[in-house]
Amino acid sequence: MGSFIGLSSLVSLDLSHNHLNVLPTGAFNFLKSLKFLSLAHNKINDLAMNLLRGPQKLHELELDGNMLDPKQLNDMFSDIEHLERLDLNFCNFDDEKISRLKFVKLPNLKRLGLAENNLTNVPSKTIRSIPLLEAINLSHNKIRNLDACSFCGCNISQVFLAHNFLGVDKEAIHPEAFADTKMTELDLSFNYLDQFDASMLAHAQQSLKVLHLSGNSFGGFLHRLTYNLPSLTHLHMAANGLRTIPLNLPYEYRQLNFLNLSGNSLEDLPEDVFQLLPSMRVLDLSFNLFSSFTPSVFASFIGQLEQVYLNDNPWDCRCATQNLQHYMLQRYSYHIQLNYDRTLCAKPQLLKNQPLHKVHYINDCAVLFGATYGLTQTSELVLLLAALVVTSLLIAFLILALLYCGKDRKYKGTYVTREHSRTRLTHPVDCGLSGTTSAMSEPLTCPSSPLPPAPPPPPGSMFVAF
């Protein structure tokens, strides 16, 4: 290890996954400024004396995946009293070995990783010996219950218990399990907790900000999951068999800034989703069945978010995704974090498996109004043709109606003329005669009647005039 000579200013050193099995005494003596050291996933089973005496400023140490002896660890702890983070994940520790570790020698320790070991209980006594401990990772163990005061007597605020067995037994979480704590983050993912109720958290309810409930087969956005959690801002609901987002969500969802819905079977978002999640900034929709968003959902909700995880969905990369592509390019600085290279097109066949944000030319784009409403060129042409046919039919119907009305009126006028003519022929004027004579009387004559002239005869008809 003489290669470290002259590297006194080195701050970070990663030696993980190197098949190391022996580290000589004083291997790191010249690394006086070292703050981070990873020896994870090697084959170290023997720790030399004074191995870490040199780096007096060491704050973070990763020893994951090594089969270590508790006694040798305790000896090493004496040389790293300034350590703030220690990872002993996947080290095959059981309850007995953990109880032998003297964490009291690490008075500044704030984060402890004990995941993927063989623990069956929360090491409460060990935790209490670390007064400044803020976070502990107990994921992937065999823990079946949380006893009363499991995390009392320390400064702990973050507990990670994913992939344990807390839902197998009834009443496995004691009402006083989180007593004397100011819990801000709790991970209960993949714990068979299909009957979980927020009331189980008791003392943690008021202070909890981040809650992980992924993989517990809830099947819906149940009110009992978030009831009486006034400080909740981050919620993980991945892999819970969710198929739809209801039109009404529990009130606590209105205060969420982050929501993880990955690994479900969601196909679309409700049109009023912006009202259901008004405080949302980061949304994870990865590993679902989304192919596109409606223009209104995109404009009122998706387009307003800071970050959206869209990877591993069957995206239809026609014009309906043009706005989405523009949104992704605006946030390209997050492209690694948001897995842009796994946000792929499923349709059309020409673009299949191409990253959505890299598609530059789409052959089926609408050219008039269709792009605004997420329509393809084919759909737009069909609508235009249908509108043209309907308009033509309406005009034809209107013309026929006008022609029919005109013909009917002309026919009625001809009929009335003939009736007037027939009346004059069959009913002559009768002059009245007086039955008495008088010297003063004069012969009566028929007064000339101011009859109107006879109308001209209809074309092609016989007309007799007297």
TrEMBL record:
Q: Does the keyword Transmembrane helix apply?
A: yes
Q: Enumerate the Pfam families for this protein.
A: LRR_6, LRR_8
Q: Which Gene3D superfamilies match?
A: Ribonuclease Inhibitor
InterPro entries per the UniProt record, alphabetical: Leu-rich_rpt, Leu-rich_rpt_typical-subtyp, LRR_dom_sf
Per the UniProt record, which residue ranges are transmembrane?
A: 381-405
**Record bears the keyword Repeat:** yes
Q: Secretion signal: which residues?
A: none
From the UniProt entry, list the residue stretches annotated as the region Disordered: 440-459
Quote the biased-composition stretches of kind Pro residues, using this chain's numbering. Answer: 449-459
Q: Which UniProt keywords apply?
A: Leucine-rich repeat, Membrane, Repeat, Transmembrane, Transmembrane helix
Domain of life assignment: Eukaryota
Q: Which PANTHER family would you find in this protein's record? A: GH22922P-RELATED, IG(IMMUNOGLOBULIN) AND LRR(LEUCINE RICH REPEAT) DOMAINS
- Under which name does UniProt file this protein? LRRCT domain-containing protein
What is the scientific name of the source organism? Acrobeloides nanus
